Amino acid sequence: MKLMSVHDIIVISLFIFSQFLRGLEDCRSGMYPPKGPTCKGNVTWYTVNLDLPPSERWTQVIKDKNTELITMVQTIKDLAKGFFDGKLVDLVDEELPLIVDTLPQPFSDEIKGIAAVSGIPLGEITLFNIFYEVFTVCTSIVAEDFNGNIYHGRNLDFGLFMGWDRQNKTWTLTEKLKPLVVNVNFQRDNKTVFKSTNFAGYVGMLTGIRPGEFSLTTNERFNLDGGYVGILEWIFGKRDGMWMGFLTRKVLENATSYEDAKGQLSLTKLLAPAYFILGGNRTGQGCVITRTRINTLDIWELYMKLGRWYVLETNYDHWEKPMIFDDRRTPAMKCMNQTTQANISLASIYDVLSTKPVLNKLTTYTSLMEVSTGSLESYIRDCPNPCTPW
Ligand SMILES: *[C@@H]1O[C@H](CO)[C@@H](O)[C@H](O)[C@H]1NC(C)=O
Ligand SMILES: *[C@@H]1O[C@H](CO)[C@@H](O)[C@H](O)[C@H]1NC(C)=O
Ligand SMILES: *[C@@H]1O[C@H](CO)[C@@H](O)[C@H](O)[C@H]1NC(C)=O
Ligand SMILES: *[C@@H]1O[C@H](CO)[C@@H](O)[C@H](O)[C@H]1NC(C)=O
Ligand SMILES: *[C@@H]1O[C@H](CO)[C@@H](O)[C@H](O)[C@H]1NC(C)=O
Ligand SMILES: *[C@@H]1O[C@H](CO)[C@@H](O)[C@H](O)[C@H]1NC(C)=O
Ligand SMILES: *[C@@H]1O[C@H](CO)[C@@H](O)[C@H](O)[C@H]1NC(C)=O
């Protein structure tokens, strides 16, 4: 298996074209509780004890998911062999272990612990942890109902251009990631501090909730001054920015309120641009923070007086038009508008997130969160044909 050949690109282009003609559909309804061909299953819960030394925290998760993790890392390596005659893989095995020691705690020790338990070389686990900084495309929504209840939903779409399985018409990496999805309850003193939906082996956070305080998701923000630049700078010794997934983990673990989280997410220097989508449990507490590496371009907030009862982010700045060949925003907004504030709930958000192309071939999982009840539920997704590749 290699990255894509010209032939693949032509085949995919034709496929996309045909799917776009057929893959756009009317807003779904009555999809919740999740079942049927678009739901591959529930996500298993694990507890991670923050009172343990970092190197021991992930032992149970990794023991359970080791076979899947090994398959996944092998898939990434096979894909990477397409680059530079396989020199990239040598580089990963030789150079990346050195990077681990430059990562802040507790991440450095957690990654080392995961490598030790799984038997996977340290450099490869490190690569797996860096991966999410640069390759996620997603949809996140925060909405408020008439009673001031805040709901937060997201689709995590991952694996774009990471190998196309012609026979099954699926993304190779996306399929390999689905069995790695776990829900984690992070505890101190036997009490829940926060909860997340994660990929086993990854120590950062893409989706999480602090019950009673806030919920948080991140979406990739593509930009010329993107993730690669910051990561290369880190490798070459300029280390003043923070890894996106580490910041979100730190915020979920240690921020104590919606406002505190918003401040940290807006002000911390980052390695890569990003969108942070934050929900609270009081009226008006929901926003999309648009970040460059250095500063915050915009904070777009719920605002009932202006009739802004939801904010919705895909992978484009909300004041710009999305790219025409990757417009998940318009269909998602159309369905939110059709739902209306009167009928918004976790169930109706699940409906929106189940409508193609918001649901697509890259969609790995859907998460639904409600801060006031502290609930986080996630479902592994599938998008049977006809379905758009993203
Ligand atoms: C998921 O869990 C719910 C409740 O625990 C159960 O009713 C449902 O059948 C499960 N769904 C799948 C696809 O396993
Ligand atoms: C295609 O899907 C089938 C059924 O899910 C699976 O058994 C097979 O391994 C898949 N093919 C590849 C190349 O992954
Ligand atoms: C957590 O609970 C376990 C038993 O469930 C107990 O042995 C342990 O002492 C508790 N730890 C703390 C920090 O309270
Ligand atoms: C926010 O959540 C906490 C904890 O669940 C709850 O006690 C509080 O009443 C909530 N606040 C509002 C305004 O809903
Ligand atoms: C959260 O704060 C504790 C106590 O200060 C610290 O030990 C821990 O490393 C912090 N967590 C993160 C992810 O930074
Ligand atoms: C949804 O409603 C908002 C607010 O009224 C409006 O600005 C937007 O254009 C609508 N979008 C779609 C796709 O219907
Ligand atoms: C309200 O939302 C639920 C859940 O998605 C849906 O089944 C129902 O049809 C909606 N009701 C109306 C009146 O739109």
TrEMBL record:
Enzyme Commission identifier(s): 3.5.1.23
Family, per entry: Belongs to the acid ceramidase family.
One GO molecular-function entry: fatty acid amide hydrolase activity
Domain Choloylglycine hydrolase/NAAA C-terminal: 138-375
Top EC category: hydrolase
Residue intervals of the Acid ceramidase N-terminal domain: 42-102
Pfam families cross-referenced by the UniProt entry: CBAH (PF02275), NAAA-beta (PF15508)
Known catalytic reactions: an N-acylsphing-4-enine + H2O = sphing-4-enine + a fatty acid
Name by which UniProt lists this protein: Acid ceramidase
Gene3D superfamilies documented for this protein: Penicillin V Acylase, Chain A
Active-site residues from the entry: C138 (nucleophile)
Transmembrane helix is among the record's keywords: no
Signal peptide segment: 1-23
Organism of derivation: Sinocyclocheilus anshuiensis
Pathway: Sphingolipid metabolism; Lipid metabolism; sphingolipid metabolism
Cellular component aspect of the GO annotation: extracellular region; lysosome; membrane
Record keywords: Disulfide bond, Glycoprotein, Hydrolase, Lipid metabolism, Lysosome, Secreted, Signal, Sphingolipid metabolism
GO biological process, one term: fatty acid metabolic process
Cellular localization per UniProt: Lysosome; Secreted
Transmembrane segments: none
Key word Lipid metabolism present: yes
